[in-house]
Every structure is written in structure tokens, then in C-alpha cells.
Amino acid sequence: MPTIAGLIFLALALTIIISGSRQIYNILIRGHAPFVFSRRRAIKKIIADLNLADGQIFYELGAGGAPLLRRLAGRYPQVKFVGLEYAFIPWLLGTILCLPYRNIKINKQNFWRADLSQADFIYCFLNVRVMAELENKLTTETKNKATIISYIFRLPNTEPAKILEIGQEKIYFYEVNRLDKSN
Ligand SMILES: C[S@@+](CC[C@H](N)C(=O)[O-])C[C@H]1O[C@@H](n2cnc3c(N)ncnc32)[C@H](O)[C@@H]1O
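Above: inputs. Below: predicted complex with S-adenosylmethionine.
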């Protein structure tokens, strides 16, 4: 007769195996970005450059452990931070790590299906292929004047407003600038 603890352990193990296999399939076959943390020095550099205003909304696409959101949340208690993460293990980790911050919400969501129209800032650390595929969504479905920040991987057809450098690595800043939108 299996015990309750045994059943919980089995359910957890199955969840980890299934979500881990899906993650491997998504990375190897579909070219999705793997779970890797942004480097601490990049985060420091971005934070030193940012100036957020009360009431703004800051998104992280593929939040993982959300290291940037956690560093910003304490500094800007009146800013709302939203992390989007589709993979179970990074989502669980991000959710647990963000528990102390009442202004961060980590949604278990595929960012392709997300409404980004309210974001003032969007942070990405993804890969070359995903940034190329995301370019249209990021430049057409976002607020005019929204800032897109991408660590290491650039948008191939959009001129950055600014580039920060840390050694060999670059952090690209883009400003959405559509003449046809007034919001
Ligand atoms: C390179 S990691 C970056 C993690 C975190 N943003 C950071 O900077 O430390 C990329 C993350 O994006 C997630 N991801 C990839 N494709 C995604 C998608 N379509 N929707 C949501 N999350 C995605 C991965 O699971 C992974 O956790």
C-alpha cells in the first residue's frame, strides 16, 4: 500500500520528468532559449542605467529565476514587475525566489501568447533565433515609447537606441517609436 508521502514524491518526480523532457524538446528541436541566469555584472549595469517611475510596468520574457526583477523590485516598490515563464522548474524557482516581493508576479505563461501592450519596459535574455522571431511582436504589439532591453542578443532589423558593454557582452536598449500611435 503506497503512503501519502510516496504518492506525493511520485507525482513530483513525474512532473519534473515530463516538464524536463518538454523543455529539452523545446530547446533542441524548436530552438527555444534554455534556462540560464543573466550574469550578475550585467544586471548591475542595467540597474545603474535604469530610472523607473511609479506606476510603470516592467516585464521579463522567459523570467527563469528573475534575478533582474528581484533586484529592481526592492528599489522600485511602486513599479509592477511581471515575469513570464513557461517551463515548470524555472517557473517554480522564480515563484519561490520572488515570494518576498509583493510587486512581482511570475506567470506560468508562454510569452508568445502574452499581451505586452501595457509594458513600459521589457527585458529579454533569450537567443539569436528567438529574438529574430520576436522582433515583430516586440515592435508592433507594445506601447509606443516602451523600452526593450535585450541581454547579448539583438533584434536583427531594429536600430538600438543605446548599447551598454561589459567586456565582450552587449546589452541592447530599443525604444519603440511608432508615429501612428499616440499611447
Ligand atoms: C536564458 S534564460 C533567462 C532567464 C532569466 N530571464 C534571466 O535573465 O536570468 C531563458 C528563459 O526563458 C524561458 N523561455 C523560453 N522560451 C519561452 C517562452 N516561449 N515563453 C516563456 N518562457 C520561455 C526558458 O524556460 C528560460 O527560463
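Residues 32-33, 35-38, 60, 62-65, 67, 84-87, 90, 110-112, 125-126 surround S-adenosylmethionine (CB under 6 Å).
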